[in-house]
Here is the input.
Amino acid sequence: MTTGVLLMAHGTPAAASEIAPFYTRIRRGSPPTPEQLADLEARYAAIGGVSPLALRTAAQVDAVRAELEARAPGRYIVSFGAKHTDPLIEESAAQLGSQGLERVIGLVLTPHGSSLGSQEYLDRAEVALGATPFLRVAPWYAHPSLVALLAARVQDARRAVTGRTRVIFTAHSLPERIRETGDTYEEQLIESARLVATAAGLDESVVAWQSAGRTPEPWLGPDVRDVVRHLAAERLVDAVVVCPIGFVTDHLEVLYDLDVEVADVAAASGLGYARTTSLNDDPAFVAALADVIIATDGAA
Here is the structure.
């Protein structure tokens, strides 16, 4: 029998003309104000007009498909679904569900799991699959190959700056109310950062948050920009290295929120700045994804 694999990610506009409808969709049908839309369009313009996320994710999906085929010829059918853009998670899941597969394995392309993040993707997929058995890949941030890969990137980035350096590990912030539900997202990030810091031989590092939503409720902190300002004000370091440990591709939250906004804060504070390179479709990363998929399949 054949196993389906559904890889899932956030999705992004493929062209500037798609930014407005995309923004409306992520706001659950509420159109942005002209000011909000102009701000988002300016952010995309600053990184070249559109995010490379769609192309990077497509390359990851193709690479995982090829890796699984090489390891187990004919065993896996790999598909992709996005949260906010075509093909949507529901469409891809329903298509897999119509093929009489033994089971479908769902993997969200983010290492850490949350009730307000990856769980929504997985829930949507399971509903659309109907009677087809569905296996969820658990958070995979502790996979040894991933930890080693990120540690090597941290070491490379540290060589790009001089003087006293502090590494800051970041992930997308979420509303603080997740703490009231037993959600372990925050704990996962802290443990993930500890594993990578240990593997990279760091004596000290910091966990911070980025890209918080613009809503009245409190979001997880501290914000990475505030951390950079504090390190500079206390004269603790000469440079910062940011490792966006919660992201696996180049996209707006990395290329703008970090490489523009945080880099500007560092420069204004008199600090050097470097960022670890994104995983994208690095063969070692693709191999780690294949590992967790096959392990999940074998545990069925």
Q: What stands out?
A: The beta strands are 3-9, 76-82, 103-108, 134-136, 165-172, 205-210, 239-243, 272-275. The chain has two domains: 3-140+281-298, 144-275. The chain is about 45% helix and 15% strand. Residues 19 and 41 are 7 Å apart (CA to CA).
